[in-house]
Amino acid sequence: MVKLDNKIGVIVDSFRLPIREGLLKAKEVGAQGVQMYAVSGELDPDNLNAEQRAELKAYILGLGLEISALCGDLGGHGFQDKAENARKIKKSKEILQLAKDLGTSIVTTHIGIIPEDENDPIYQTMLEACEELGQYATSLDAYFAIETGPETSKTLKGFLDKLSTNGVSVNFDPANMVMVTKDDPVAGVKLLKKYIVHTHVKDGIQLQPTNPKDVYGYLGYDSGTSHDKIEEMVENGEFFRELPLGHGDVNFELYFSALQEIGYNGYLTIEREVRSNPEKDIKEAVQFIEKFK
């Protein structure tokens, strides 16, 4: 059996509590680190001046926690829409700076589905946005980490290989793969090994084949997606369900072994997107991971 020494994180927002109450819960369930959404509300970069950032950082450290990453997912079509990108790139840069101010170097996000056809104009639009963000992240010694799931690992790697820096990297989520594209998480880890800077630990099953565009949205296909819409789909959707760790189709023994094999020593951050009783599930998820330690 694989023996892990990775730290365990939790997404504070999964508790559905105000930030500081969520941080206390994270400590209570046994996490060592936390990830938090930083796109609106309390953690919107516009709402935190330098003094407030320093105070929040000190509060988190005072709890004996560290920040594994911030989440900077701006929804909609990611970076597929050229007309939206100037605003979204500016906001993403502000979130990257906030991350550094709070003591982490990672911001995770969804960038929209990467087209398989590299000649698709949307592909080039996304590439240009990620090139600018990658260079900016590298200038801060930080990473803008794309979450796996909307496309296959092969398509994602081909896209990342075209960028001039590794400032845009990967937040690896195995459940998104088994729920949406049916891509193999273990093969995905090995393929994307040089790009993985953060992971989500989540489980799920696919109920019937689905078009990723119906989950994540696509420019010209629909009006885009939101975190709330995805939460509804993972809990009650007809295509897939997110399940407590060990109850879905992610083989965690093999998945954790693959992460160990590539030398990944970062956070295993628990994400639970369902609305009912997340605290119980998160606590059990921490215990599930600890069985591998």
TrEMBL record:
Organism from which the protein derives: Lysinibacillus boronitolerans JCM 21713 = 10a = NBRC 103108
Protein name: Xylose isomerase
The UniProt record lists the keyword DNA repair: no
Record's keyword annotation contains Glycoprotein: no
Keywords: Isomerase
GO function term, MF aspect, one: isomerase activity
All copies of domain Xylose isomerase-like TIM barrel, residue ranges: 25-291
InterPro entries attached to this UniProt entry: IolE/XylAMocC-like (IPR050312), Xyl_isomerase-like_sf (IPR036237), Xyl_isomerase-like_TIM-brl (IPR013022)
